[in-house]
Amino acid sequence: MKRSLVFIFTLIVIQSNFAQMQNIKPLKIGDKIPATIWNSIPKKKSTKVIILDFWATTCTYCISAFPKMAKLQEKFQDKLQIILINCAEDDIKLEERFSKINKNRKKENWLKIPSDLQSLTGQTAFKFLFPYRTLPHHVWVDETGKVLAITFDYNATAEHVASTLKGKKLDLLFKDDSRQDKLDTRGFIRSTLDSMPPPLFYSSFSRFYYLPYGAEYFSDSVNQTFRFGIYNKSVLQFIQTAFISDEEIRLINELKNKEILDRPKDDNLFDEWQKKYCFSYEAEIPLKDQGNIVLRKKMMQQDFSRFFANMFNIEALIEKRKFNCFILVKSKDGLLKTTAGEEFYEGPSSYTYGLDNIDGVTIANREFSYLSAALQLLENHGRPFIDESGVPPNLKVDVRISGNLYDVENVQRQLHQYGLDILEAEREITVLVVRDKK
C-alpha cells in the first residue's frame, strides 16, 4: 500500500511539473525570468551580469570552450557569473561520460567542469524558457533577471562583459533558433509568396539574416520540386561548396582584400564581419533532378561566379600548381596493427572529447584515415600534406604519437615504429585559386 501511495504521489508531481513547464513561455530580450526559476540560479549579491551557457556532452565545441569561459569568470570575479546549463543530462550521466573519457586517456579528472564555473544539470525548464536548436547557446541576464541578449558563444568576450557592466546596451546578433521550423517547411523565398502560386524553379542570394547555420533540403512531391539551401555561410564556405568536391583541393587566397575570405581573429569584430561577408543561397529545381549532383554543382558555380563577381569583383579558378609537399609513405610492411579493443580517438578535431588537441594523437582500433587527417596539421608549415602510403583508409589500426604534431621531426621519428615515414618532395596538385577578377 505504501508503495502504491508513493507511486501515485510521484506521478502527480511529474504531471504537475510537466504541466508547469508546458505553461512556460519562451522569453524575449527585455523579459524577466520568472521568480521560481530566477531563485534557482546561483549568484551573489555583487553579481551584475549572468551568462547562461547552454551545452551538452554531444557538443564538442561547447566543451572545448570551458577554459575560455573559466578565464572570463576569473577576470571579472563576483561581478560576473557564468553558469553552465545542461538541459538533457543530469549529474549521473555527466559523471559516466567524463569517467569514460578520462579512463581512455588514463588520467583522472582530465576532463571536467572547471571549478570556477557554476553548473546546473537536467534543467528542462530552462529549455522551455530559452528554446534552442543549436549549441552553444548563450543568454545574458542582468542582476534583476532581465534578459539582455540571446546570442552566440563567440560574443562572450571581456570587452562585451566590461561594456555591459558599465551599463551600455549590448548590440549583438540575436540567436533566434525558432526561425528554423519555418525554414524547414517553407524555405527562405517561399515565405513571402503566400497569395501566389508556389515557385517551380529559382535560385537566389540573400544578405546575412540570422538563421541556424547550415544546409537544408526539402522534397515537395505535390509540386514536384526539390529545394536546397545554404544559410548564413561566408564567401569562403560558398566557394568551397560550389567548387570543391569530395577530392581534397586546397584553396589559395590571392585577393588584395584578404578580409573577404578570412574571418577576423578578434571575436568582437565577428558580428559586423558576418553582416558584410555572409549570405544565404537557396535554389529550387524539378524533383526529377533531385539526385543530379553534377547539375546542382554546375548551377551553384554559375550562380556564385556571377554573384560574387558582381559583389566583390572576385573569381575562383581550379588550377594545377607545383608545391614542395610533406608526403606520408610506407617504409615497412607488417607494423600497422590493432588489438581490436574499444574504439578510441583523441587528437586534432577530436569528437571523442570535444577538445582540439595538437599535443599528440591516440588512435585505438580506428580507421587509418584518422591518422592521415591528424597529420594535416603539418600544413601549418606552408606545405601541402599528401598521403601516398597506400594504406587503405578504412584499415583499423592502433597508433600513438606523443608531443607536438607541428614538429615534423618528432612526428617522423615516431612514425617509424609503424612502418611509416614523412618525406619532402615536389608534387603537382590541384588548387582552387580565389583572386581579384581581371
Question: What are the key terms here?
Answer:
Glutaredoxin, five-stranded mixed sheet, four-stranded antiparallel sheet, 13 helices, 28% strand, globular
Write up this protein:
- The protein has a five-stranded mixed β-sheet with strand order 3-2-1-4-5, with helices on one face. It has a four-stranded antiparallel β-sheet with strand order 6-10-8-7. It has a four-stranded mixed β-sheet with strand order 9-16-11-14.
- The protein has three domains: 20-165, Glutaredoxin, CATH 3.40.30.10; 200-312, no CATH class; 322-428, no CATH class.
- It is globular and about 70 Å long.
- The chain is an alpha/beta fold and 438 residues long.
- The chain is built from 13 helices and 16 strands.
Can you tell me the overall shape? globular
**How much of the sequence is in beta strands?**
25-35%
Q: Domain count, please report it.
A: 3
The percent of residues in helical segments reads 25-40%
Radius of gyration: 26 Å
End-to-end CA span:
86 Å
Summary, kept brief:
Helices cover 30% and strands 28% of the residues.
Secondary structure layout plus pairing:
Layout: H1 2-23, H2 35-38, E1 49-54, H3 60-64, H4 66-76, E2 80-86, H5 91-105, E3 118-121, H6 124-129, E4 137-142, E5 147-151, H7 158-165, H8 179-186, E6 202-207, E7 214-220, E8 225-234, H9 235-243, E9 250-253, H10 270-277, E10 278-286, H11 293-312, E11 314-330, E12 344-346, E13 359-367, H12 368-374, E14 385-387, E15 396-404, H13 408-415, E16 420-436
Parallel strand pairs: 1-2, 2-3, 9-16, 11-14
Antiparallel strand pairs: 1-4, 4-5, 6-10, 7-8, 8-10, 11-16, 12-13, 13-15
Helix pairs in contact: 9-11
